[in-house]
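We modelled the chain as a single entity of 404 amino acids. Its sequence is:
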Amino acid sequence: MSSSATPLAGSFAYPFPRFASAPQTPQYVPVGSLIGDERTSSPAPEKPRPHVTRWSICAIGLLTMIIVFWMRSHVKEPRQTDRIPYSPNDIEDYFSHFEGHQDCAIASKDIYVSPMLDATNGKKPLQYCKNRARLLEAMNGGGRHGFDTPYFPVGCHYRWYSTTEICMILERFDTIVFIGDDSLRYIYSAFNMLLRENIALGSLKQWEMKESEREMCRCENQLIKIDCTKYAVMDSESVKTNDAGSGHSSPYYCDRTPHIFIPIDASPAKENLHNTFSSILNRDHDSYKPIPVVHSLSLSTSLSWPMATSSMDEWVTIADITQRNTPFLWVGPNAAGHLKPPNLIMNQGNNALWHYTVEMAKEANSRQLDALGMYNLTLQAGSWDGSYYGQKVALVQAMMVRCP
């Protein structure tokens, strides 16, 4: 996101305790001199004092420090500098408590490998990225070690946060706004799955669906079937208002930070969408918390460069009028899959998508917006129609969007 955003990275200090003053040599008191002691016979001979100097104490302390630092230097653990405390827990079973984890057959190890786990294979572990700029660079330039294998950033790694940690991060913001076409809608759908801890139907308005539709739309189908996507959640308020009273409740793990998806397919967008965005920005004008905006526009405009830059200016202008702190993250398009229809290859093939990714990132940066590309992430991933990707990719994308 833009430079106005509150950085997600921080630093911690771990001061060593000060050395205590040099211990005093024990004083040996004659036994007979104790108050109330009847043994007043001849005093015990004084024991010789050990020869301890200030220099010997300092030498022992220095040697101890050297040993401690040497031991720490041989412990291989990923460095983590953001303000969410690092937990070395194995996330292989991250989805084990999610609804649908068995039916959807998604295991965390299939989509993410932590630096520690990767190090067990004899590789030098990646360190966690130290700041947002380095994180974006790493995620933009990464790749996969084989088709549909977990995605690895280049140079440093991103965190896979637990739901509790995601909620801690969301507390920093007033509202989260997603503005984009269908490519971004997939990411917002996965964002809802994570927050509702439900990968079976977490992106849908279950309270509006029939039982037969709930069965049909489980797992991957909630993203790819038209009869299912019409029930897609478009804002957190609808879930808070309606989900609790339904017989198939799937509430958010945390819901104090609202979020919304504003669908667009062109620039300029419809006036009612502008009004929705403006009302969000003006809801609590005195709030010190930023309102991050995740923005994307690609396939719906046939990768029109002028329309993409127009859309950037359009929404940034509205945000600037309110003078709210609104960091923007521009999200690039997916790569083309093997099933891309021949009639779309010329205008929406990988050559066109790559150039669009690079040039629009430059345009975003020139406007002081952050840019996150999805080309490398999806280049070796399975696509169901050549343009859009399934649940596994969407979950990774949702985590990547959250990380910066």
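As a brief sanity check on the tokenised model: The two ends are 7 Å apart (CA to CA). The first strand starts at residue 127 and ends at 128.
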